[in-house]
Amino acid sequence: MIHLSRRLAGAVSVLLAALAFTATAMTAQQPVREGFWGSVGAGYGTAGLSCGNCGDVAREGSFSGFLVMGLTLSPSLLIGLEVDGWVKTINGDPLRLGGLNGTVQWYPSRGMGLFVKGGIGMAYARGDLRFPTSVFLDDAGLGYLFGIGYDVPIAGGLSVTPLASFYGGNIGDVQNAEGVSFNIFQFLVALTLH
Questions:
Q1: Which of the 8 DSSP states describes residue 30?
Q2: What is the pLDDT of residues 131-165, one digit of tens each?
């Protein structure tokens, strides 16, 4: 009898939790986008580097993350300032790649969480690379950013946001390396507050 009542209590608890989750999801279905907003995320990125007179460095995967803060112009259009970063130790030397971009984020449908974003700004690279010759990077250049994501509302103005983005930049001539550039594909999960 006690065993049966524990099972019944467990089943009722699961049912109540499912109902609470469904009610929360139904009230959070309509995203709210107004005022200031921000998002912070982390995940995995693959970085590729190239040099005009010394070839390419094989793509490397590592930790990647971003932080963006901005202003809502309309429920479909947001602007922001985004910092992206990627870091990995290669052959005992740390390599840091990143960007600081002004971004525009557009939602094709006001009632959905799908968005695309793009931006332009500054790219930076710091670290020791071994092309056929050794190059130490501590430079900045023109940067860019493109991405796609989806806000999944969880409570009030808070969303979980899976996204994929592509950013990079042209660092230019560094020491004996000409036309150094990099790009990063990143796959992230973020918390977004509207």
A1: S
A2: 666 788 899 999 999 999 999 999 888 999 999 99
| Tokens coding 44 | 């995995």
pTM of the model: 0.80
| Domain spans, the chain | 1-30, 32-193
Yes or no: say if 55 and 131 are a contact pair by the CB < 8 Å rule: yes
Pick left, alpha or beta for residue 150 (phi over 0 → left; psi -120 to 50 → alpha; otherwise beta).
beta
Residue type, 158: L
DSSP state of 107: -
DSSP annotation of 14 reads H
DSSP conformational letter for 157: T
C-alpha dist (Å) from residue 158 to 29, 32, 40, 81, 155: 11, 9, 12, 19, 5
Q: Judging by beta carbons within 10 Å of its beta carbon (0-12, 13-18, 19+), is residue 172 exposed, middle or buried?
A: middle
Helix, strand or coil for residue 146? strand
pLDDT > 70 fraction of the chain, expressed in percent and rounded: 82
Q: Which is more confidently placed, 1 or 162?
A: 162
For strands 152-155 and 114-130, give the pairing. Answer: unpaired
The predicted model gives 169-189 an average pLDDT of 91
Give the separation between CA 178 and CA 49, rounded to whole angstroms: 12
Task: Provide the CATH topology of domain 32-193.
Answer: Porin (2.40.160)
